[in-house]
Amino acid sequence: MTADRIGVGMLGYAFMGKAHSRALLALRHLDVPLRPELVSISGRDARAVEEARARWGWAEATTDWREQVADERIGLFVNGGPNAVHAEPTIAAARAGKHVLCEKPLGMSAAESHEMWQAAERAGVRHLCGFNYRFVPAVRLARELLEAGELGEVVHFRARYLQSWGWDADASLWRFDPAQAGTGALGDLGTHVVGLARYLVGEIVSVSARVRTIVPDRAVDDHVVATIEFENGLLGTVEASRLARGRINSNAFEVNGSKGSLAFDVERLNELEVADTKSFRRVLVTEPEHPFMRHWWPPGHILGWGDTFTHQLAHLLEAIAGEHDVAPHGATFEDGYRCDEVVEAMLRSAESGRSEAVASR
Amino acid sequence: MTADRIGVGMLGYAFMGKAHSRALLALRHLDVPLRPELVSISGRDARAVEEARARWGWAEATTDWREQVADERIGLFVNGGPNAVHAEPTIAAARAGKHVLCEKPLGMSAAESHEMWQAAERAGVRHLCGFNYRFVPAVRLARELLEAGELGEVVHFRARYLQSWGWDADASLWRFDPAQAGTGALGDLGTHVVGLARYLVGEIVSVSARVRTIVPDRAVDDHVVATIEFENGLLGTVEASRLARGRINSNAFEVNGSKGSLAFDVERLNELEVADTKSFRRVLVTEPEHPFMRHWWPPGHILGWGDTFTHQLAHLLEAIAGEHDVAPHGATFEDGYRCDEVVEAMLRSAESGRSEAVASR
Amino acid sequence: MTADRIGVGMLGYAFMGKAHSRALLALRHLDVPLRPELVSISGRDARAVEEARARWGWAEATTDWREQVADERIGLFVNGGPNAVHAEPTIAAARAGKHVLCEKPLGMSAAESHEMWQAAERAGVRHLCGFNYRFVPAVRLARELLEAGELGEVVHFRARYLQSWGWDADASLWRFDPAQAGTGALGDLGTHVVGLARYLVGEIVSVSARVRTIVPDRAVDDHVVATIEFENGLLGTVEASRLARGRINSNAFEVNGSKGSLAFDVERLNELEVADTKSFRRVLVTEPEHPFMRHWWPPGHILGWGDTFTHQLAHLLEAIAGEHDVAPHGATFEDGYRCDEVVEAMLRSAESGRSEAVASR
Amino acid sequence: MTADRIGVGMLGYAFMGKAHSRALLALRHLDVPLRPELVSISGRDARAVEEARARWGWAEATTDWREQVADERIGLFVNGGPNAVHAEPTIAAARAGKHVLCEKPLGMSAAESHEMWQAAERAGVRHLCGFNYRFVPAVRLARELLEAGELGEVVHFRARYLQSWGWDADASLWRFDPAQAGTGALGDLGTHVVGLARYLVGEIVSVSARVRTIVPDRAVDDHVVATIEFENGLLGTVEASRLARGRINSNAFEVNGSKGSLAFDVERLNELEVADTKSFRRVLVTEPEHPFMRHWWPPGHILGWGDTFTHQLAHLLEAIAGEHDVAPHGATFEDGYRCDEVVEAMLRSAESGRSEAVASR
């Protein structure tokens, strides 16, 4: 526990602000090479920021993220604010030499995300885009099994992220405002699916998508379906919805290969279904050998959703300390950008009614 | 048990021949208005037909289905042969005034299926296309719940039929020969999915599909993915594969509506998952009130896949006896035809790379 | 299909009469060495027997089982009547040289069951007690895995048979009448559990049981719990109830060994959960290599509860034809008797409040 | 976040020490009426205690718990050490006026536990025994449903706590040493089951148990089975094992009532299966109305095992602040004691071979 320290500044105090604050607090007591100091938190609503500061133990609160960018005590800038305030503060922080973690979706467009990626690269800082589901133990295990060739040649991918809160939600949420959120289910949930597809299988080269806004008077989409084609020609299906009754937070995927298969659902976050050529095995992913388990309990004592943020920040701190790169297990800004290109190809496809190639700048 | 009798002639002696023979034998002892007499069985291989005749108790065997068409003792012609011999014998039988049951896919093309439908209609006979999954108790219950409005407005449909035998199969099977089978996973499995989509949700108006042949040297497809649009604008996803390791016979669908959801998998044929606005309930569909259950056991004593053929033939016999129409619960030749139009739109879409409208003659 | 024939006489026309009739009809078309002829059916209610005769195609009906015993055309006597009429007709049939299948529980007491066993042995006929769950494909597979040592040394057994119809049942059912049924949940369901325990693990040497009648005015038990000790000292738990809401026909067991485990539930009759030292695998027991599967479909096409009767009768016909013994896979009258000794030890234990040794005559 | 403060001293630095330390740290940032200050940690191994101190941020470390008892800054004493050091330090702390939380099993015997309870009562301090599974959200929901009468009259209870690490464990663990652990699976796992039985259903009046030590050379039991009788006459089954292959941490129960049922397994900690008179519903227990959810995330974002310790300590802090009593939702030392009486009755029953009444001092 004699780790060096790193000062952290965070923008955002709501859902993501809470998730990152708790993870930072947990990491002050875990084996990471840099011990996070909670220097300052920022946001537009002075009272809410101050309340978050006091609750989570940030040393200072501010309504101006520029103060954080200028703050020499801060070595890592975490952006957990609404999508519309991702780019400018994150780019500024990177240019000021701070390592950056920005929530997904990265920018409001692929162009903006590309700019963020380029800026972070040019600044030579570590950059991570908050695809936290990569830090579910079962998802990491899935990736490792795939890399080890346990499934043979991958031939199919199918995934869907289904929630149901959209039916009853308050229409004034920022998530329903195109100016703040960009898109709806597509950007919020579809990006997670695309992020997992890319992490587990590889680059997506073309998409055929359809998008719907079903609940009257909503300004953003609430349902998207797509077929996708990967680099090597294999096909997949993708779906995202906030209107699937009975599904609360069901981010689920299945990968089929020539020698076996994998299936997962975030609602059973600690389980990975692993098939050989015959049948599926339910693996409770809590074995001590797993890279995330050194922080936790004996086998069979399950983890929660919030713990994925702890794993993600631990990974970033290790990367900052030079222990490994952010990629491939952490999503970089490049991943955030490439995900946005897939999303934009989906929107073009929904418009054109045809398969659209995924662009690359 | 004083039912009238109906003579049955069947073409086909392999998998489907066995399924229909067993169902006919069972129906000789169940409450149906017409008691089936097994008059004759036909097929190209004289020895195999004779063997099937002796095993299943058919009175006669022949290698010429024309004899069956001319046989006045036969009132119902069941065609369970390979796809390429569906149209001609079935049309001839219908023209000879026999009621007809033909396996799916109906014809080798939508045009041929249309011709079969028109011929059966003009002949004024009852016609049923063998989409036997409509006769799974849980599927009937699903349809009844949907009709009763239990799910509210339907908004999503997703389904996939996954098997894995394709990896290890004998390449000489007729199912891999385009001349006999037409297509591969698409016609064999995809048609079941399309059939269920139409039965449960409604007409499909456009499709965007991609098709692959993955196993080297196969002459038919072994994987298809598609997004579909129904009449009312709602979207769905469809997939069929013979290469999904760990999935043996997983014909699964989920329907989401504004008030609830349904989920089903043929591998758990006796169960229907039913959600209200909150959570899924596992219903063991063996209640005595269910229309198929009068033939069977007390609650909780489950049925097998073969029993769906018994239900289907009972339904057809009742329709022949005038108790009800074949539609909507049985698939008619119109259903077989409309399913083929969807399949052909999928093939066109896979070719064109764009969403294709489903045609109607 | 050139098998020799065997004439069958059956006592009983209700639930078990239906199950055995259907199985016999099915076996007329399957590969068994003796083709069953349905010679005569008997029962006390003339009208009901005649109705059953006509429905299931028995050649004759009688209200006097003695006619069946005297009937030289009959080579196999199947007793599917209420428990109180198991012993006398079955013993008489055996003494007349007929092979005998009697439903479980075998006699009204261990003494009576012992007499039945001895009589059948002395008569030199084949005898089978209708523990049909031994003929579930997954249960046979479980036994084979255990015999092959796949689980290592067995250390635990737990099982329970839970139904819920007891809450709402008609009090006039023969199953609630001690004179006809003997006991309640214990004899009806508990015997199945004991039968499986003995088939899978071995002889039970002592039991500690508690029994309750919960629904007011019931004359037989509706709940029993017990701990059991097997020959080798290992322990198990047993439970049977007709009052477990949400459980329809849940006959479930789990066996744990030093190298792996097995779990099964009749509500998912086609599945066996198989664990190695790490995790459980869901095996869909429909592989063509399975000894029961030669009668049926390609993999993944599931079987129903009624099919276990077909397997059981096929097994008995093979034994009669000399292909193998009834034991170990079929339950003999010895098994029926030994099961009753366990049940009586449970009743003694419930009375004495202490562990009771299982007697042996 | 202007809560009053309470100084905490803890004995123990291993598994339980970690669980409580993390919970205390989390509670410094949650809505509880007393903010915990981590004053000092104690244990026999000076180096290990210092390491734990540094890691978890305890202000001081000591090898003598008496210093903690004498420390006026400490208002709450948490005992997470081995079972053999539960009584003396906890009693001393209570006598010194400190509120006390002691891990389960409470004492090394019912007599010792009784003494601890009496001491704490006499001292007038709040006392909680660490049955953390009461603080699983699904378990609390189960209790609330039972209290609300949703299940009608409870008629059956069955539970088992199955692990498998015992096969491969290091024989030198304190858990295998009778002097430190008392019993084996019984005290470690069986107490959890008994604790849940009492919390959910009520007092246990008699038990019939059998106990085994299966792994050679183990000095404590590794398997126990029992039937139990509750105050109102209803029956249950209980089992605990460290040798059930494929079960990692499966603490599972089922309760059946006249109107419905409940089923739960810690391996799926966020789910409660809830049946009405027909079928089971899978409830993901993450709704915002749940009393534990105010600390956490939107619906569908699951919690981990460690979070139950946070809920438990929050509950105790609220009780110390006078917001409610420790009972009934928290286990008191009385609960710890009564649980031990059940355990001792089980040991007597295993010895005597008969049903033994649960004693009460």
Describe this structure in words.
The structure is a homotetramer of 361-residue chains. The first copy, chain A, is α/β, with parallel strands linked by helices and 361 residues long. Chain A has helices spanning 15-27, 46-56, 65-70, 87-95, 110-123, 137-147, 178-181, 185-200, 307-320, 333-352, and strands at 4-11, 34-42, 60-62, 76-79, 99-102, 127-129, 154-162, 204-212, 223-230, 235-241, 250-257, 261-265, 271-275, 280-284, 356-357. In chain A, the strands form 2 sheets. In chain A, strands 14-13-12-11-7-10-9-8-15 form a 9-stranded mixed β-sheet. Chain A is globular and about 55 Å long. The relative contact order of chain A is 0.16. The first copy, chain A, is 33% helix and 25% strand. Chain A has 2 domains: 4-132, Rossmann fold (3-Layer(aba) Sandwich), CATH 3.40.50; 135-303 and 328-357, Dihydrodipicolinate Reductase, domain 2 (2-Layer Sandwich), CATH 3.30.360.10. The first copy, chain A, has 10 helices and 15 strands. The mean pLDDT of chain A is 96. Chains C and D meet through strand 7, strand 8, strand 9, strand 10 and strand 11 of C and strand 7, strand 8, strand 9, strand 10 and strand 11 of D.
